[in-house]
Design brief:
alpha+beta; Barwin-like endoglucanases; six-stranded mixed beta barrel; 3 helices; 28% strand
């Protein structure tokens, strides 16, 4: 009887000791894990450098602890990304072009070409309707003489013959959309009559006799 009771006591003692050690070591391990989790907010933060930005992901490389050759792709929301567009401004030769970062509001704006000013001659006051004819330097039109009354070589879409008592040599007149210069005279070119020079006889004859409005030039 004594031996059986003694064995029971020994077994109870062993089981109790085992349970006590289990709870002690288990509680200690749990406490250490809680402390590590609590201190994780104070863990050192490694700064990473952004290398590329795509539409939906930010590719970064961590200089410490990670392999630099393996980029980490971190998806980000497009709603949280503010697109920026960098453009190069115009600069004079020898100067460095400055860069301007434009926000998404200007993303779809396109640069406009500078307006080209037209400094050419323009119609001014109307002088009324004139009889217009055509001539050239041939024998029939000019007796084969190759120079104008003012001594210039006549040019198509430039030279006209007029009454120099009304329009002195050098006067510019506009007929249609062409600006002419009075450089010549003619025997029959008197008053409201203007003779327009052409490069060849065919074109001069094709002009015929037309009533056209004549304008001064600004």
């Amino acid at each position: 009887m004594y031996s059986v009771q003694n064995r029971r006591k020994t077994a109870v003692y062993i089981i109790s000791t085992a349970l006590l050690w289990f709870f002690v070591f288990g509680f200690t391990a749990w406490g250490a894990e809680v402390r590590v989790s609590a201190n994780s907010s104070n863990a050192p933060v490694h700064t990473v450098e952004a290398r590329e930005t795509s539409k939906n992901a930010l590719v970064v490389t961590a200089p410490d602890g990670l392999n630099d050759s393996e980029p980490v792709s971190a998806p980000i929301s497009p709603d949280n990304v503010q697109e920026s567009h960098t453009v190069s401004s115009l600069s004079a030769p020898g100067e460095t072009a400055s860069l301007a970062s434009l926000g998404p509001y200007y993303a779809n704006m396109k640069p406009t070409a500078p307006a080209i000013q037209d400094n050419g001659p323009k119609k001014d006051a109307s002088l009324g309707m004139f009889v217009t004819t055509g001539y050239c330097t041939c024998e029939l039109c000019s007796g084969g003489y190759g120079l104008t009354y003012s001594g210039t070589v006549p040019k198509a879409s430039h030279t006209i013959s007029a009454d120099i008592s009304l329009f002195p040599i050098g006067t510019r007149l506009m007929i249609g959309d062409v600006t002419y210069t009075v450089e010549d005279i003619g025997t029959n070119v008197v008053g409201n009559h203007i003779d327009i020079f052409y490069d060849n006889h065919e074109d001069a004859m094709a002009h015929g006799r037309q009533m056209l409005e004549v304008f001064t030039v600004k």
